[in-house]
Design goal:
It is built from eight helices and four strands. It is α+β, with helices and mostly antiparallel strands. The N and C termini lie far apart (81 Å). Helix 4 crosses helix 6 (118-143) and helix 7 (169-176) packs across helix 8 (191-197). A hairpin with a 5-residue loop joins strand 2 and strand 3 (108-115). It is elongated.
Length: 204
């Protein structure tokens, strides 16, 4: 079919094309109007390894974050979160709304939660983060030994980053252990380190 014939067909069927376009646009509008908005909130846990054998503290914390992320899929964890959040959720709904994933290879763990409004999402993320800390401590103590229980698992509001948005775990390690922070001038948000150091969980 050449171009002239193509335009001729369009001209002959313009009304049909217009009606189909309007119907499709209406359907898309209705679907988007009835779709519930979804909000997301995140709690970031900083994991500092306790006693390690052949691993560096960073490697041990990274491995621990990968393992701990799986705990949010357990029925006991979800049940506790549903109970403590006081939100009207089934275990299946809670499982669909809550997720956890390591942040790179830095020993941090993001606990994310979604909800139909900001308040529900933030409540679910906060309760899930707190419950994950409790679950980590109890399961590691029961399944391994008290010696393997992480020294500190704490929720933080932000992580230190460079101006190019790269996470800086060494700066946190320096500050937490009382050492001068290396390359502090390169940090875009040095206040994040101050907030982490001030955590009650890190008080010596």
């Amino acid at each position: 079919m050449d171009l002239a014939t193509h335009f001729r067909v369009i001209a002959q069927n313009w009304l049909r094309i217009l009606v189909i376009s309007l119907v499709l646009a209406t359907v898309v509008f209705l679907v988007s109007s009835f779709r519930a908005d979804e909000y997301q909130a995140t709690e970031t846990l900083s994991i500092r390894a306790g006693n390690t054998l052949n691993q560096s503290p960073q490697d041990a914390a990274t491995f621990a974050a990968q393992v701990y992320a799986k705990y949010v899929e357990t029925a006991s964890f979800l049940s506790a979160v549903v109970r403590d959040s006081k939100l009207k959720l089934s275990l299946s709904e809670a499982g669909n709304r809550i997720s956890a994933s390591p942040v790179g290879d830095l020993g941090y763990l993001d606990v994310k939660a979604t909800g139909p409004n900001r308040k529900d999402a933030e409540t679910l993320a906060r309760v899930a983060g707190g419950q994950l800390v409790t679950t980590i401590r109890s399961r590691v103590r029961a399944e391994c030994s008290p010696r393997h229980t992480p020294a500190v698992v704490a929720a933080v509001d932000d992580l230190p980053r460079t101006r190019s948005n790269k996470l800086v775990e060494l700066a946190v390690a320096d500050a937490v252990h009382g050492r001068p922070v290396r390359n502090a001038e390169a940090l875009a948000n040095p206040e994040a380190i101050d907030a982490i150091v001030a955590l009650p969980e890190l008080a010596r």
